[in-house]
Request: fold
Amino acid sequence: MIFKSAKPWTLMYGHQLDQYTFECGDCGHMTTRMVDEDRL
Reply:
């Protein structure tokens, strides 16, 4: 997986997440993951 981008994402009630986007180096499939920084 190749890291493509990260951007802040705010849900309702002001809860902060980060959206990470990855691309498969073999097939080009894009995967997006939401990471809750408060729960790491």
Notes: The beta strands are 2-10, 16-23, 30-35.
